[in-house]
Amino acid sequence: MASTCDVLIGGGGVTGLSTALHLALRKCGRIRVLERHYVGAGQSGRGAGIIRSMVRHAGLSRWQAESARFFQNLGEQFGEGIPVHAAGYLLATDRITPRASMTLPWMRQGFVHRTFACTYDYSPDGMPILDRLEGLAGIYFAAGFSGGGFSLSPFVGRTMAEYIAIGRRPDDIAELSWQRFRDGKTIQWSNN
Ligand SMILES: Cc1cc2nc3c(=O)[nH]c(=O)nc-3n(C[C@H](O)[C@H](O)[C@H](O)COP(=O)(O)OP(=O)(O)OC[C@H]3O[C@@H](n4cnc5c(N)ncnc54)[C@H](O)[C@@H]3O)c2cc1C
Predict the structure, then answer these.
(1) What's the distance, CA 106 to chain centroid?
(2) What is the per-residue pLDDT across 24-40, written as a single tens digit (0 to 9) for each?
(3) What's the confidence (pLDDT) of residue 2?
(4) How far away, in angstroms, is 7 Cα from ligand 1 center?
(5) How far apart are CA 131 and CA 71, in angstroms?
(6) CA geometry: angle at 32 spanning 77 and 136, to 5°?
(7) pLDDT value at 191 more than 90
(8) How far is ligand 1, taken at its centre, from the CA of residue 50, in Å?
């Protein structure tokens, strides 16, 4: 591997890889991804791959729609696609499971598909933090995806690549700075 580069990305999950891809599309020079284990070793290798499209936050809905279009057009753009299916989504709590199981008897027992352990990064308001380090030029971070980082990864890659390339925060991610916690301006949204 070359010992010098223009952009060094830490972490070979969907966030790092998408940012690397979008930097490459912008022709931002030599881009390297440093991964301590293997690509997809973190949450990205374990996620369910669900792209939600119904949330109570206009920005988040737009960002998810952009990402869904990216995944749908992957084959056209890069010659190799992934299957994308429109499907329903049911979040069952302990309270509704007994009722639902009257119509869907298999829900009474549930089943364990597989088990694993990994870090699940959660921000205080459940929204990502896309920012750069204050006082130290050239260091950017994207974290706190709170269980939705796969669905946002194309959007995050595009906006972080723009942020890094131009050095100015894109308007699209204005509300995703870490300062919102310092200023008590957390984002209000919900999944239903
Ligand atoms: C069970 C589960 C189900 C999920 N389902 C969905 C879903 O349906 N839809 C959805 O949108 N999201 C889902 N998510 C969330 C989604 O998977 C994550 O938000 C997303 O994968 C985060 O990607 P990431 O690249 O930011 O982090 P990660 O995938 O965790 O990648 C971080 C990488 O950094 C590497 N690393 C760490 N430290 C260093 C270091 N010092 N040097 C070099 N490398 C380092 C790690 O090895 C890892 O590979 C789910 C998550 C889990 C756990």
Answers:
(1) 32
(2) 999 999 999 999 999 99
(3) 62
(4) 20
(5) 24
(6) 115
(7) no
(8) 14
- Residue-range domain boundaries for the chain: 7-84+91-182
DSSP structure class, residue 188: P
Tokens of 119: 């870090």
How far apart (Å, rounded) are the C-alpha atoms in residues 159 and 172? Answer: 7
- The two tokens of residue 100 are 């639902």
Q: What does the block give as tokens for 105?
A: 């008897």
The position carrying tokens 């690509």 is 39
The verdict on domain 7-84+91-182 having CATH code 3.20.20.70 is no
Using the mean position of ligand 1's atoms as its centre, give its distance from the Cα of residue 35 in Å.
12
Which among 21, 43, 52, 60 is the best mutation to test ligand 1's pocket, defined by most ligand atoms within 8 Å of the CB?
43
Strand ranges in 27-159 using DSSP code E only, listed in sequence order: 31-34, 129-132, 140-143
Atom of ligand 1 nearest to the CA of 14: 25
Tokens of 84: 């994308």
104-134 exposure pattern, b = at least 16 Cβ within 10 A, e = fewer: eeebeeeeeeeeeeeeeeebebbbbbbbbee
SS3 state of residue 8: strand
Residue 162 phi, psi (nearest 5)? -65, -45
User: Position 127: which residue type?
Assistant: M
How is residue 187 annotated by DSSP?
P
